[in-house]
Amino acid sequence: MFTVNRLFYKRLVSYYKFQFANFRSVVDWTVALYLVIPGLLTAGYFYMTWWQAAPPWIEHIPYFVMAILLFILATRGTVRLFVEDGDQLFLLQRVHWFSALLKRGLMYTLIVHCAASAVFVMLLAPLLLLQYELSSFELVILFVFICCFRVSAALLGNLLSVRFNGWRYGLLITFVQLFMAVLFVFLVLTCTKQPLLLTVTCMGLALLTGWMIRRRLRVKGAFYHDVDHEQKQKMKFAALLLSTVIEKRPRQRRRKPLLFSNSNLIFRKRTPASGLAEMFVKSFFRSWTQIRLYLQFVLIAAGALSFHFMPGLIKGALWLAFGFLLVYWMKTYGKEMLSSEFVQLFAWKKEDSRSALVKAVFIMALPGFLIISAAFGISISSWSGLIVMIPAGGLVIYAISKLLTPW
């Protein structure tokens, strides 16, 4: 028998399947192996060291800044109701079903906000306990306060978006957020060491949350608003991914590309393999989208290797991982070019295609990896490390290209 519970769980599972599919489109096994897993291990290592002793840099951050950070984390949530456009054909005519679906959506919202608050507090717990000298009981009360405040802020924002729109909503929500920021920071700074007062505040926020939930369930005429809001929440991650790939139409198009605008030859010796490799390289560096993603990758990798507090062994592992990841990206681009309709018009020998791919991948990956290697060398041994790591980076990226590209 089809019930409201089955309907809600079906939509919840469908939502997470959709988000997981989007995640899989970005993080395949190579990205996870060379970037995500080393990053998580590095973060876990530093988190464990925080429990032993607070990091030196936290001494320069006052508790006021930590309170602002907690406020930002406490106002990032929203309300999920799992309403769909097709519900107007069935659920709107059955008020009991529609109300039950909204209740389950609000219950899911409460659970998610409490779980997110628990994660944030656990991540900051060693800093709050060791540096700012909170007791365990005070930390628990602070967690409850953040939960109540986060849920109340999400419900208040949703109610205001239902009632107002346009510039009125933007102006009102700005004033409300400023007021909530002042209130939150004041309560955290003054009441953290007074658990009883913060407990009373939590009770008040809990009563306010209950009132806003009842108010939200009684709102009439918000169906299309809720459908639009749910669609935006569902597509938020996908829109973020597409924003980095889809090239916006420029206001003024360049007549010439930024690089290789004169079509000069790259290789002196003209062979089918060198001609094909030259086409790959020029196609890549003439695309502004590819250049932007390339620069973002290089800057993030160089920045990650510039942290002086990271152990040298972990830096070396990340340096190699960035090399493998960069070569894999260039190899993927080259294979896409090989399978394009224009390239398939010509009968290329397998040896020429393989040789062209190796050459192109090495040339495309070399500039970025030299910058990454320079940042790695400076971070481990200043200028002497820079002199050593630049040629070492060239040799390593050449070896990785030879090793990984023929597969």
UniProtKB/TrEMBL annotation:
The chain crosses the membrane at residues 26-48, 60-83, 104-128, 140-162, 169-189, 195-213, 291-310, 316-334, 355-376, 382-401. Keywords: Membrane, Transmembrane, Transmembrane helix. Signal peptide: none annotated. InterPro entries: EcsB_ABC (IPR010288). This is ABC-2 type transport system permease protein. It comes from Paenibacillus eucommiae.
